[in-house]
Amino acid sequence: MNIICDEVKSKMLLLMLPIAVLFAGCSNDPYRPGEAAEQTFFSSFSTPPTKLDPSSSYYSHEGRIIDQIYEPLFTYHYLKRPYEIIPNTAVSLPVPVYYDKDGNILSEKDPAPDSVAKAVYTIELKKGIMYQNHPCFALNKDGNPKYANVKLKDIKKYNYPSEFEFQGTREVKAHDYALQMRRLADPRLASPILSIISQYISGLTELNKAYIDMLAAERERRKIAAGAYYNQERDEKNNPIRLDYFAPEFKGVEVLGDYQLKVTLKRKYPQIIYWMCMHFFAAVPQEAIDFYNQPAMSEKQFSLNRCPVGSGPYFLDKFKPHEVIILKRNPNYHADFYPTEGAPDDIEKGLLIDAGKRMPFIDKQVYRMEKEAIPGWNKFLQGYVDVSGIANDVFDQAIQISAGDGAMLSPKMQNQGIRLITGIDPTLWYTGFNMLDKVVGGYSVKNQKLRQAISIVMDYNEFLDIFLNGRGVLAQGPLPPGIFGYRTGEKGTNPYVDKWDARSKRHVRQSVEKARALMVEAGYPSGRDKDGQPLTLDYDHSAGMDPSFRSRFDWTRGRLDLIGIKLNDKGTDLSRFRQKRKQGNWQLSSGGWLADYPDPENFMFLFYGPNGKVETGGPNMVNYINPEYDKLFKQMESMANSEQRQKIIDEMMEIVQRDAPAIWQYYPVSYVLCHKWYKNVKPHAMTYNTMKYHKIDADMRVKSQKEWNKPIYWPIGVLVGLLLLGLLPVIIVNKE
Amino acid sequence: MFGYIIRRGLYGFPILLGVNLLLFLLFFYVNTPDDMAETFLGEKHITQEQIDNWKQEHGYALPRFINTAESFPGMITQTIFWQKSMSLFAFRFGKSDQDNSDIGTEVLRRMPYSLCITVPVFILSLMLNLFVAMIVAFYRATYIDTWVLVLCVIMMSISALFYIIYGQMVFAILLKLVPVSGFDSKAPYFFKFLMLPILMGVISSFGGGVRYYRTIFLEEINKDYIRTARAKGLGEGLVLFKHALKNAMLPILTNVVVMIPFLIMGGLLTENFFGIPGLGSYMIEAISRQDFAVLRSMVFLGAFLYVISLILVDISYTMVDPRIRLG
Hints:
In chain A, about 30% of the residues lie in helices and about 15% in strands. Chain A is an alpha+beta fold and about 725 residues long.
């Protein structure tokens, strides 16, 4: 029996020893030795980017990467508010030349939209802007591309284009911008902005059709050659189709020289300049398209979708979308200097200390995948991530709300030197009433009153406090703050639903009594119709799988109950939900809109009649039609910002507030936490190319990380001791 | 035996075909290609023309089962079912609907990440659980047995998520010994990222494992050959680790070999919480992005591995029990 006892002891020791050895000498530092001491920015991502092609990429998590690689013609001033557009690779902002239907130049600066038959923008490019180093530019001695017709065996060893032996660069030319604008019409790239901009850029719809026909013809040819077993996907993987982008005629974009470009619009559309601030209008070299359009590259999964080629401040060094994304400073980046002026309080905030210095300041950016919010948050607290948002679960740990000062950092955060930066997002959340529905829709005064009563009782200040830790501002209409036309304070109050509370300096909902009175006027006293039946509404959604939905729905139901309205949960799957919206077969449903660009047109069009979801599949989800509103929208749509435009917007706001086609929920407020060593940070809601302005004090970071992360070993010894103690009963029983 | 393997392989084919058919109905009838297109194109600016183009580019513009515009065999091969579902039998998984990446390449790329966690957890848990179960079986009906069983029941009752979150809290946040999460595929840096998930994996499987193996050993330990072995004067170590263990191999093997698909497919929770970019994580990403091409492939791959592992169970029986013959 003692033999067993010895065996047990020795085996337990054998098990415990490696555990103790493993933990000894370890630390919680997730990076390689010395990495933190470099000019490197550390962050994380939870959703892997899937589209890095500037034609297709649309989402913010993709924009964070490619907006630093590609350079559009124009950009936004980093510090000035309201947002101001400045030239980026263009020499100056273009002044549009307007033509009437007879081809005569219109002399007015801001002519009436109806008088404009054509608008021409001539854009001058800066000289000397070079692309990043890339193998697509590498040339043989004879001047031909080094990697043309390359075989898989020759590139098998490379994991990424930056590893290729031969690299090259060249100057950015107007042709590259024209190429990219043509690529927007390539059906294979499914550009998300094609349907919008093809309404404005001359010939873009026709170009798209021409490309579709070219592809169809080539596929038909290949199908006939391959026979019954033709598989398009496999065929194009082995032999990608090379589309000659410049073959069809396209009058919308013309190259006037190496550094001059002409963009022609079908009508007046000043918002085109905002689109030109986005990566959709960046330069893409033909060499990159030809380089990636080879079977060997396709086999290695090298494509513009995963390996971008740009002229921006950074280039993509490593792209493992499931693990890590690394960007490095582009050694060919042109002279670019930190702004010397900004918003009034920027000097006070230390945002102009680096004024006039050459950018970028950071050499490398490392983004590691972090699917769950809590581990990411803990890494931030340990100093291993430079910036973080605040998840709901940890809000109380980070923020304290005091009556006088509002949101403040908790003492622990303050001791760590963490800074809180907040900003209202140019985003609108609303609950729509389907205007085609006979109960909640319609344009009679009674129906208006019903919608107003429901809007009043849905107190989104309460919602924000309960579910979002107060991170939002009660919405007064479709326009969020920061967008021209938005009125602050009492002037901006929605008089039908809200009132201005001078004490708390914020909007609050009117009383439930007012809502009850409106219900009586609407013909539903105590929430009952003329037959005495309770008014029952349906809430359509596809959020059944969202764990937070149930409590939010219960809150909604509880609020409506205050005016006697019963609410049914009409949850369904996403495709059925979409179908219902398309057919207009719903009553209440929630939606949101994030600004594409900072112009009121981008929000007001959500309620423009011809954009109705049922009629045209447009973004007017609630199918709202008001001829007066539509008329004003057409006037306002292409106007320059002016008092006149503000007046029209005020009128439009009054109309939608009165008609109440939606319950205006809130404009979200973003909270960002930055460590003390991460500098020059100012939130920017319109562009993601801001990393070049940011700066890291690496020495301070290393010092803080060491101080905050001293490993504690003694509990491991205690644990091993306890496990050994666990053997005691075995020994005792053995002896018994 | 070769004939048996072939026969079992052929039996597996209708199962896989059934899985495939079911998947096809789920993915192409419940959720139509139009719905898929809308999901991927987003809801902001989308037209029917764009939906049609997307379907054309992703090979979903074909008829689903029969292409009446084609003559045989084109009427079968020029369909979504043939091109998207039957091609799975040739392990041609195609491209992801979301990012056009090659699914087969991605599976091969991510598999090692999953194996990095699941194989050590599997081996260490097996060794630890067998060892403890044997000890407990030996001390059956004593208070050691009682308390270990109580501990096992407690450990079984706790969710795996609890172990993960508290493991991160204790070892990474309070003791600061290992990183909270993440991965670095370069040696030797990956090692520090593996320690915690492996440790938590071993701990979370301890309760269930020990109870299961204890039951098996209790059955064996009361048999005549054990009494005979002891009567012959063999040491307890030899009796337990040589004789009892060998004879308990049949149920142990059944349990062990059917785990193979799960080892390869990775741990959904573990990978998600520790940020390990393995196949479990790939599945979660595909679900959240509604990437049906990836989901179809992964479900098919899981079914295929399960069929294979059942064949392996049968083969392994013949290796540990000479009385079993496969014919």
